[in-house]
Amino acid sequence: MMGAGKTRIGKEASHLLGLPFADADLCIEQAIGMPIPQYFAEHGEPAFREVERDVVIEHLQRFPGIFALGGGAPMTPAIQDALEQYKLQGGKVIYLMAHPQEAMERARKGGGRPMLDGDADARWRMLFEQRNPTYTRMANVTVRTHSMTPAKAAERMVDVMNERIVHVTGDGIEDYDVQIGEGVLAQLPHVLGPKPVRVALIHTTSVRRHSDQARTLLRQAGYEVSDITIPDAEAGKTIEVANGIWQRLGEEGFTRSDAVVGLGGGACTDLAGFVAATWMRGVRYVNCPTSLLAMVDASTGGKTGINTPQGKNLVGSFYTPAGVLADLRALVTLPNDIFIEGLGEVAKSGFIGDPEILTILQDHADQLRAFDGSTFLGSDLEPVVAELIERTVRVKAHHVSNDLREAGLREFLNYGHTFGHAIEQLEHFRWRHGNAVAVGMVYAAELARLTGHVDDAFVDQTRSLLDSLGLPTSWHHDRFDDVLTLMHRDKKARGNTLRFVIVDKIGHVIHLEDPPAQAVEQAFRLVQA
């Protein structure tokens, strides 16, 4: 809005980033050869908006820096279309949200604003009511500048510029963004939007520091927050836990226009997403993963679910979130072993879709294996982890966008999972998911070798990489029949036919239908500790 400080903050941020800065109003005055108030008076607002449209679209296509738009520019349909294209190409559209009183005061003092002629404050409030919904819809990042100095607001904006955004779209999917970076949790009110009155904040006790921050953000934004704590890990993914939450939502009057926020590891966000999908047939949901595994796996794709005594994730639904906020600050409290298990899913995405992930893992294996949350932020490892998260999310987004309901392509994301899920079940979930998937990938590699799809070198590479990251590559269980029974219950199985996902070369995945029983058992023997 007018008076939000776009020019001052934009200049400060451009200086910090070493980027050029341009102000739309100044560019327009250069194009028309006169001050904007004079052009307004002589030609009227419609003529001004046409000039503004041309100047803004040209800059969005060619200007390589920070560009401050006039307050009315995003209301022009052609500019809205150009901003959407800009976002699709990875651009940040930032809504500087100032406190109304602060913005009105600056707008009055600044003068020279034709849109505020007359009662300036009344005009500002009217324009805000008209424009705020559009600003909120068009922006993929919001920076709240309440009581901030321009320098502080610029620092926050720089944090935003360093964030990574993966846009998820596709048939049957309502588009949403996965935002990755330091401090992205601050975007929570923006992603929730203005419609919800009540928000159920579902989290575990182990992420209290982060849930406290989320609760404060939500209350400051005016939401009524219901704080719901669930058991850690897979113990929280049960019908009993879900039923307790449904009862509470009913008692507290949650309606279809209210919302759910899931904050925690993958098990917590799976459960929270399932509650959101089933309460009144679906309410708005925001996913806030706090572990590496959750950021790269459970955060994207809309899979929600709970476990049953017969297997993992056998009850659930496909339900896409309104947005995903992967805040790197959450990793500072992550124990080393929990961080490393997340690398199992990262490596999986490298094998099935992005070989560069494997290169990054190999080049930084020692650093990753020695992860220490207390020294993570600001370290050389932080941009490495951010890139790994982004690349892994992009692999998953590609498969999800083309196959929301797991009819074909999306099944390839289950590389290593058929055997891995059996491990989890037989170990009564004492084994963490990423570790089980790591052994599952070794099993899949051995099975692919036994069936003639890969050579010994591929199996050796799989084992060597996972071992260098500190991930397990073997597992012991006495009874093969137990494992076989559970693999037959896998979601990829068809009737009595076993069906595996295997890699026949890095980056290329195929289905292995009903492999020889001898190979299935021999691969099991080869992964025994």
From TrEMBL:
Q: What is the lineage of its organism?
A: Bacteria, Bacillati, Actinomycetota, Actinomycetes, Bifidobacteriales
Residues given in the record as NAD(+) binding sites: 232-237, 266-270, 290-291, 303, 312
GO MF terms on file? 3-dehydroquinate synthase activity; ATP binding; magnesium ion binding; shikimate kinase activity
Q: What is this protein called?
A: Multifunctional fusion protein
Q: Where is the 3-dehydroquinate synthase N-terminal domain?
A: 228-339
| Pathway info | Metabolic intermediate biosynthesis; chorismate biosynthesis; chorismate from D-erythrose 4-phosphate and phosphoenolpyruvate: step 2/7; Metabolic intermediate biosynthesis; chorismate biosynthesis; chorismate from D-erythrose 4-phosphate and phosphoenolpyruvate: step 5/7
Give the protein's cofactors: Co(2+); Zn(2+); NAD(+); Mg(2+)
Q: Which residues bind Mg(2+)?
A: T7
Purpose: Catalyzes the specific phosphorylation of the 3-hydroxyl group of shikimic acid using ATP as a cosubstrate.
